[in-house]
Design brief:
The protein has about 300 residues and is of the alpha/beta class. The strands form two sheets. Strands 3, 4, 5, 6, 7, 8, 9, 10 and 11 form a nine-stranded mixed sheet that branches. The protein has a two-stranded antiparallel ribbon with strand order 1-2. Helix content is about 45%, strand content about 25%. A hairpin with a 4-residue loop joins β1 and β2. It comes from Halalkalibacter kiskunsagensis. Belongs to the LysR transcriptional regulatory family. This is LysR family transcriptional regulator. Pfam families: HTH_1 (PF00126), LysR_substrate (PF03466).
């Protein structure tokens, strides 16, 4: 039995699914099944009860999972200690990010990080906030960056910067002609919204509820780019991170609606699962993202 066998076994246990484990590990499902059978043959026991609908871990499988996690943790720790002796930061980190962060913040941070630590391999998954939290909880991701906050005992969350949310409108919209807009003028507007599960959507819903606004009609898009294009085309108004529309505002393609006596901000947070071992590569990436706000112009 080797380390790869242990990694495959642990992944199947954590995902409770052979196909999902195969996809995550970039292996075929038959290959994963073969590895598991080899482990079971070596241990002379059954680790999983397989059925068309689900995969259950046997009592023997649960015991072996605990020990396998300890072995993998010690293996990674040993690798890192050896690398530290050479003053080399290496390894692989899997990073998740919600769309706003993944498209407008993470690329610059990663470019700097990769230049400073060429021995670290980075895998990135971008999705909406709900999807990223779910993958972090299941240990598919090591570190994730999300919009807003999360309350989950399985996840550690630390804010790393403030994000300003603004309301944007087409340049020819009646509200765009006003220097300052009273909240009541936002009544009966057409809103362009992100999809459910998005941190921006959650923030928009909260604002609409807090201001007791009646939405005349709404359209839903699954990306910030889609929202910008829809607003620019005159479809309606939207709430969006200022980070995503800097260029469009500077070029006069969109207009910001300034709401009287209101400023909208939210926290962007680093989240991570309860991992047994955190490498130097993880620590340095977290340090880099925590210092990012200080470098923003």
């Amino acid at each position: 039995m080797n380390i790869d066998h242990l990694k495959i076994f642990v992944t199947v246990v954590e995902l409770r699914h052979f196909s999902k484990a195969a996809k995550l590990l970039n292996l075929s499902q038959p290959n994963v099944s073969l590895h598991i059978r080899n482990v079971e043959n070596e241990l002379e026991t059954t680790l999983f009860i397989r059925s068309p609908k689900q995969v259950k871990v046997t009592a023997a499988g649960e015991k072996f999972y605990i020990k396998a996690k300890e072995i993998l943790s010690l293996y990674e720790e040993a690798k890192q200690e050896i690398a530290d002796q050479k003053h080399i930061v290496q390894g692989t980190i899997k990073i998740g990010a919600s769309f706003t962060i993944g498209e407008y913040i993470l690329p610059r941070v990663l470019a700097e990080y990769a230049n400073e630590h060429p021995g670290v391999n980075v895998e990135v998954i971008v999705g909406n906030t709900e999807e990223v939290i779910s993958k972090t909880r299941s240990n598919e991701l090591d570190i994730s960056l999300i919009e807003g906050e999360v309350i989950d005992h399985e996840i550690e969350a630390v804010p790393f910067m403030n994000d300003e949310i603004i309301i944007i409108a087409p340049t020819n919209h009646p509200l765009s002609q006003l220097r300052m807009v009273k909240p009541e003028l936002l009544q009966d507007q057409v809103w362009i919204l992100r999809e459910s599960g998005s941190g921006t959507r959650a923030y928009s819903n909260q604002l609409i509820q807090n201001l007791n606004l009646h939405v005349r009609r709404s359209f839903v898009f699954s990306s910030s780019q889609g929202i910008k294009e829809a607003v620019s085309a005159g479809l309606g108004i939207a709430m969006i991170s200022r980070l995503t529309v800097r260029k469009e505002l500077e070029l006069g393609e969109l207009k910001e609606i300034n709401v009287a006596n209101r400023r909208f901000t939210r926290k962007l947070s680093i989240i991570k699962g309860r991992h047994d071992f955190v490498s130097r590569a993880h620590d340095l990436f977290i340090e880099k993202i925590m210092n990012h706000e200080k470098t923003i112009e």
